[in-house]
Amino acid sequence: MENRESRWAELFRRGNRGDGAAYRTFLTEVTPVLRRIAAARSPGLSAEIEDIVQEVLMAIHGKRHTWREGEPVLPWLYAIARYKAADAWRRRGRPSVPVEDLAEILADERSGDPSAARDLGQLLAGIDTRSAGIVRAIGIEGESAGEVGARYGMTEGAVRVAYHRAMARLRGLADGKEERE
C-alpha cells in the first residue's frame, strides 16, 4: 500500500493536470487531517474549526499552482493549515488559553522546521562550496566575519562582501532567476 505522502502527491498532481475525480479524492482524503490540525492549532476555537478547514481548502484550491510537483505535498499542506489557524487567532484577538496548556502542541524550537532545512540545503548546494560555508558560518551558526575570515584566509570586509553576494545568489536561486553552479 502506498504511503500517504506519495498517494496524495499523485492525486494532487493529477488534479492539477485536470483530473477532477483525483482532485475530489485528494480533497476528501485530506479534509479529516486538516480538521485535526486546525483543532490542535486552535484550542479554544472549537466553534470555528470548520470555518478554518474551509479556509484551508479554499487556500489549497487558490494556491495549488504554487506547489512544485517534485516537492512533498504534506509540508505544503501543513503550512497552509498552520497559517490559516494563525489567521483565525489573529481575527479573534489575543488567545485566552494559557501557554502551559499548549506545551504538548508547540514544537520544540530547537528542532526547527525540517522542510526549511531541506530547502536551505538544496539552495546551498547550488552555490560554490566556499560561499555556502560562509553563509552557514555567519547566517546559521552566528560566527563573526573575523572568525570566518581567519578560517578562509580572508579579510573581514572580503567575508562580508562574499556573504552578501552569496545571499544574493541564493535569493536568485530561490526565485528561479539564477541557475545552479
UniProtKB/TrEMBL annotation:
Gene Ontology biological process terms, A to Z: DNA-templated transcription initiation
What InterPro entries does the database record attribute to this sequence? Answer: RNA_pol_sigma-70-like (IPR039425), RNA_pol_sigma-70_dom (IPR014284), RNA_pol_sigma70_r2 (IPR007627), RNA_pol_sigma70_r4 (IPR007630), RNA_pol_sigma_r2 (IPR013325), RNA_pol_sigma_r3/r4-like (IPR013324), WH-like_DNA-bd_sf (IPR036388)
SUPFAM superfamilies of this UniProt entry?
A: Sigma2 domain of RNA polymerase sigma factors (SSF88946), Sigma3 and sigma4 domains of RNA polymerase sigma factors (SSF88659)
Domain of life per record? Bacteria
Q: Where is the RNA polymerase sigma-70 region domain?
A: 31-94, 124-171
Q: Which UniProt keywords apply?
A: DNA-binding, Sigma factor, Transcription, Transcription regulation
Secretion signal: which residues? none
Q: Which Pfam families does this one have? A: Sigma70_r2 (PF04542), Sigma70_r4 (PF04545)
Listed GO MF terms: DNA binding; sigma factor activity
- Member of which family? Belongs to the sigma-70 factor family. ECF subfamily.
This chain belongs to the protein called: RNA polymerase sigma-70 factor (ECF subfamily)
Source species: Albidovulum denitrificans
